[in-house]
Amino acid sequence: MNLEKTKWPDGKKCAAMLTINLNAELFWLQIDPSCKDMPKTLSLGQYGMTRGVDRILSILKERGIKATFFTPGWVAEQYPDKLKRIKEEGHEIASLAYKHENMALLTEEEQEEAMKKGIEAIQNVCGVTPVGFRAPEGELTLDTLRIAKKYGMHYSSNLCDDDRPYQKDLENGETLLEIPIHWDNYDLPYFAFNYHPAFPKGQGRIANYTGVINNWKDEFYGCYEYGLCYVLQLDPAAIGAPGRIGLLEELLDYIDEFDSVWWTSGEEMYQYYQNK
């Protein structure tokens, strides 16, 4: 087991990356396309864009933290004012394909089309070209990462096989920087809930808030002690509720107690690894 600590910029002890997945209605539409005729279910995702994003942005602005917003092209088109505000406040906008596709179920040609449309939509709305890619909920293939590289992605944040960024071998003579993620540092599996279509299928949650914040703190503490990269995933529809936004504030207060934490975006992480 390799316990050698990663070297971070300016002698920092660990890295922390705050990522926001702008799933909006698409999370529910992927589960069941018939949700397009279910305004109550769609409203669960719409809430994140109409209320949750603003709360997150206000907290980040107060603390001077820049986050990475993974964005489907369709969401950029439907909520252009939100995306423009995110850009104006200095956050990174990265790609989440076009319409929350399960990439592993698509042909290579369909994956290319989703990637291309998603990038073009972000360019048209925000005037920026994303350099990072995260697949929507669902699986991806090695072809997905090769296509991401082909369309200008410098990094991926999808896999769960490490706690440190590394160069993923694409088995075609190329590599792509991978910034790993873990389910326990993602709010949606704790909080997403609906009766029909049923999510989770077995029902039986929303998670206890105290348990969730303790999980996130413990995971950060472990990353700090081992000198790793802590990646938090948030969905505005989950964390953006009035009673949950305080969890984010509490976590950021906790992290602020530790010296030598490097807050970074995905693009900054890529640049660091380019220059190592």
From TrEMBL:
Q: Which GO terms describe its biological process?
A: carbohydrate metabolic process
Picking any one GO molecular function of the record gives:
hydrolase activity, acting on carbon-nitrogen (but not peptide) bonds
Record-linked PANTHER family:
POLYSACCHARIDE DEACETYLASE FAMILY PROTEIN (AFU_ORTHOLOGUE AFUA_6G05030) (PTHR47561)
PROSITE patterns, per this entry?
NODB (PS51677)
Entry-linked InterPro entries? Glyco_hydro/deAcase_b/a-brl, NODB_dom, PgdA-like
Q: Which domain of life does this protein belong to?
A: Bacteria
Q: Where is the NodB homology domain?
A: 39-276
Name of the protein described by the UniProt record: Polysaccharide deacetylase
What Pfam families does the database record attribute to this sequence?
Polysacc_deac_1
